[in-house]
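Memo to structure team: turn this sequence into C-alpha cells by end of day. - J.P.
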Amino acid sequence: MPYNQAPDFLCADTMHPTYSAVQARLLEANRLSPELLAKSLCIIGAHHVDYADIYCQRTAYESWHLEEGIVKSGSFQINQGVGVRAVSGDKTAFAYADSLCIDSINRSARAVRAIGAAGGKVSAKMPSETRGKPVCSASDPIAGLDSAAKVALLNKVEAIAKAADPRIVQVMAGLTCEYDMVYLAPSGRQTRRRHPPDGAPERYRYRQTGRTPRTGQRGRRRTLRLGLFR
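Reply from structure team:
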C-alpha cells in the first residue's frame, strides 16, 4: 500500500525523563518538534512511496587516559546529524546530513522521495500519545561524575591492578563515556532512545626477575567487573 497519507504518530510517555531529555537536547535545541518532523515526512509522502523514516541522533563522547598515575590525555566532543530513508517496492533511498535542522531534513526528504512517482496527497497530523516502557537508564554517564571523580576512578583502577600482581610495574587505564540520543520518526510511530555506554579498559606492564617486561590488557566497554562503583 503506497505511503500516501500523513503519518499517524504514537509518541512515548511525554512525562518520562527520557522523553524530556531527548525533547530538550535533541529536538528543541535544534528548533525541531514532532510536528515539524511530521510535515517533513509528508514531503516524502507527496510521492508514492511505501515507507519513510527520519532518524535524528546526538552523540556526546568523553575520554580520559591515565598512565603512571598521571592523566596524559582527554577529549570531549559532540556530534549530531540526521538520516532520511524512503522505500518504494524493492528500492530504498537514503540521504544524510551533519546539520540537524529543519532545512537539512526537508532537503533530504525531497532527495529520497524521488524513488517514488509524484502524485501523492498528504496533510500533517498532530502526534497522539501512548505510554511505553523505558529500556535504558535515564542517567547521563558523562554528567554523572565530575572530573575529580573520574580521575579518582582511574587511580583506583591503577591501584587495583598493581595490588593484583606485584610484578606489575606500569598501568595504563582509560575511561570512556558515550551518550547517544536518538529520535526516530517513521511513517507510523515516533520513538526516542537514550543509550549510555561506558567502560574503563586498562593495560598493564609487569616485570618478572630475569625476564623481559610483558604487557597485558583487560576490561571491556560497558562491562566493569572490579567493583569500582560500589
